[in-house]
Amino acid sequence: MIAGMKMLLVNPNTSAAMTAQIRIAAREVAAAGTMLTAVNPGFGPESIEGHYDEAVAAAGVAQVLREQPPHDAVVLACFGDPGLDAAREACAAPVLGIAEAAFHAASFVATGFSVVTTMTRTCIIAERLVQRYGFERACRGIHGTDIAVLELDDPASDAFDRIEAASRQALERDRSGAIVLGCAGMTTLARRLQQRLQVPVIDGVGVAVKFAEALVALSLGTSKRGDYATPLPKRYSGWAAPLGWPG
Ligand code: 2AL
Between 3.40.50.12500, 1.10.3130.10, 3.60.20.10, 3.30.2350.10, what CATH number should domain 6-98+207-243 receive? Predict the structure, then answer.
């Protein structure tokens, strides 16, 4: 670990409460010397629960990256990994999405895993990510709970119990050995759920932070050869004008 590495945590939705939770969860696992900045975009959806939300949130991620100074590593803390490839173009530092990081971590500790996520409509988004990242063999099922993302912020909600019940069913039905939590808002539940289920419960925020630290320690940044090369400088128009890459 490099002493004093600077990590940027980007919550692509605009819920400041969730950004604060993500920061706390990341702090719990980050090395003592890792300095964390947690931010969310100034515009966009307050929760990301569909393709449309994701499209706008990805522009929010671009805004954050244009505004922030360079960091040693970046973590995109939304399970849809919105704007992940764009963020890699924009950064020389390693950029990790929590879905991709979680799938990798799960495959290290179990031959098969199940994803337990929020709204059922987001299951197709997770399924496409599984395909894009090549985890079709290891991912044995994706399960919606119809818990809204912002409900996870509400201490009075029964979200934990519903996620536990869905996880038990998933482990049984899918014959899987681990649970991947399909939302950054579930990060604070992971430890307790793992104690209850007695199988690895993977929270993408935690694993992305630790993978990012490992990549930085190994001096591995985003390749600037090929499609992750810095965006071409050009004029952007209208409200997106500040997002264009300068020449
Ligand atoms: C998410 C997430 O991680 N943050 C958010 O707003 N939506 N993902 C999800 N499947 O609900």
Answer: 3.40.50.12500
Ligand 1 center to 63 CA (angstroms): 19
Q: What is the pLDDT of residues 156-192, one digit of tens each?
A: 999 999 999 999 999 999 999 999 999 999 999 999 9
| Ligand 1 atom showing the smallest separation from residue 118 Cα | 11
Ligand 1 mean position to 207 CA, how many Å? 16
* Whole-angstrom distance, CA of residue 232 vs CA of residue 247: 8
pTM for this predicted structure:
0.97
According to the model, what pLDDT value does residue 247 have? 82
**CA of 125, closest atom in ligand 1:** 10
